[in-house]
Design goal:
Elements (H helix, E strand, L loop, with lengths): L15 H37 L10 H4 L6 H17 L2 H14 L3 H18 L8 E6 L6 E9 L2 H6 L6 E7 L7 E7 L4 E2 L4 H9 L24 H18 L1
Antiparallel strand pairs: 1-2, 1-5, 2-3, 3-4
Helix pairs in contact: 1-3
């Protein structure tokens, strides 16, 4: 007679259903990232085609010549158009036209607010300048004892830096939300209250998006990534110690 507390005499092999279930879950882990990536790219291309192609004359569209609608043609047209506009905007004539158009927009009350907001967001997201995040950090938020990952954007300037009660140097910290890091909070912390992390911004973003499931150090998540071992200076010191003895032998 056996009881629930008796140990099994040998390890029981998993059944057929358990092995099929394990194989199915493994297949999902492999297929899901690839499938979702392809689906997202396919959907974005279809959305861009639906917006761009109606603006293109029918005589230019490839569908009139090959008889089928090729997905991605609108995306190619959009990329070429954007490159041409950017090339023109870098010249003197393009900058003059942009300045004239912006002066007209500044005279429109509602349009002015919408345009300036979208322009600031576009410059922040797409402009390759020093305003991009380059450092990940830890801060105590929303209260002492609770830590959150943030990204150092800039040093606080102007009225914010002048009117801060602390009087210390303030850092602008963007604290993203999980799992959507594009939204979050802009906080200003004294520099001494910000702990700079060694991990890259990409690794910190992965940690936020995965809700703490993906750590930079995959082998041991409880420890930070190990730095490259420094070259030992013991042989150099040993050689330095041996040089006076060799000099004495030579003198003798």
């Amino acid at each position: 007679m056996t009881t629930p507390f008796d140990e099994e005499p040998h390890h029981r092999r998993p059944g057929v259903f358990a092995r099929l279930r394990s194989s199915f879950l493994t297949g999902i882990v492999v297929i899901a990232p690839v499938g979702l990536t392809i689906w997202l790219l396919w959907t974005v291309m279809g959305w861009i085609d639906g917006v761009v192609l109606p603006l293109v004359p029918n005589t230019v569209q490839p569908e009139q010549y090959i008889g089928i609608n090729l997905r991605g043609v609108g995306l190619i047209i959009f990329l070429l158009f954007t490159i041409v506009v950017g090339w023109i905007a870098k010249g003197i004539i393009g900058r003059s036209l942009i300045g004239f158009a912006e002066s007209l927009v500044d005279r429109m009350p509602v349009v002015r607010s919408i345009y300036s907001g979208i322009k600031q967001i576009s410059e922040t997201v797409f402009a390759q300048s020093e305003r991009s995040f380059d450092t990940a950090c830890l801060i105590e938020y929303p209260r002492k004892g609770i830590w959150a990952i943030g990204f150092v954007s800039t040093t606080a300037k102007g009225e914010i830096a002048a009117r801060s009660a602390s009087g210390d140097k303030l850092l602008s910290i963007f604290v993203p939300t999980t799992p959507n890091p594009t939204s979050g909070f802009l906080l200003f912390f004294p520099e001494q209250d910000v702990t700079i992390l060694d991990m890259s911004v990409e690794d910190a973003a992965k940690l936020v998006i995965s809700a703490g499931l993906v750590y930079p150090n995959g082998k041991d998540p409880s420890r930070p990534p190990e730095a490259e071992p420094a070259q030992s200076t013991a042989p150099l010191q040993a050689n330095t110690k041996q040089r006076p003895a060799e000099a004495d032998d030579t003198a003798a």
